[in-house]
Design brief:
By secondary structure, the protein is α/β, with parallel strands linked by helices. 48% of the residues lie in helices and 10% in strands. The relative contact order is 0.14. The mean pLDDT is 97.
Length: 321
Amino acid sequence: MANPQMTPRERFRTALERRPLTGRVPHFELVFFLTMEAFGKVHPNHRRYDQWDQMEEKERELHRRDMAGIYVETARRYEHSAILLHPNPNTLEESIRLVHHVRELSGDRYFLMLHGDATYSIPGGGRMMEFCARLADEPDKLKDEARRRVDAAHERAQKLRAAGGLDGFALCADYCFNTGPFLSPDQFGEFVAPYLARLIEGYREMGFYTVKHTDGNIMPIIDQLVDARPHALHSLDPQGGVDIAHVKRLCGDRVCLIGNVSCAAMDTGTEQEVVESARHALRHGMPGGGYVFGTSNCIYTGLPLARYELMLDIWRREGNY
């Protein structure tokens, strides 16, 4: 059985593998955007580098180290077990540099992830009609494109593996609205699920972990998501009617669960609603292991920091095996 003296990275991996833990449940947030309020610094993802190409390498390096420092400081203050890095600029070279800088600052203390999805998500409004037309008119071309996207993701992952320091990928293609999936379950099974499974299989073969994120009501396709064999499902969105108690009974023996604390309650609800949501997630996610505490989305801009700290108070008091 894992013990409380393990590093946060080791505890996160133990949860992903659904092995038992002692001590506190691991904690992770997909993004913590409130860095101005917490540290007086702009979040790396909100920085504009229109003149990056004009910067001297010395200035670029200062930016890289500052961004790495923000990620590590956030993880330390709020006791995150894992960090999802957002390279800015978002290139392979800058991704490798950011991973190395965070490792230089924190050693092997934290589990490090990058974005790594290659599957079709809900298209933006400007592309939605075109995508829907292609589903009917060009299904084979869409599938060929899906295969090429997975191949490109695997090629990138091979380079990241060779560079070292990375633990896994967050697969952040959103598939669902609050009312249900954008694609019907049959369409999802044709255009997304096989490529998601292939993507994850390749990552697993390289030794990477995967956390599959999607908001909304995933229940009509949850069997297909679990069958693709991600190590974890995030974010178990209560606004989409996803109840962690039901999901734990349904598939908690096959996949780690992350999240379920209601962002809606944290943003516009009462303090008691925040407390109740945090307790519900802990009460039903913790039994048997395979759970990581977190919100149903992320700590986004405009969410009151005091509400996040209230949520963490419940976790520190009641999220212990």
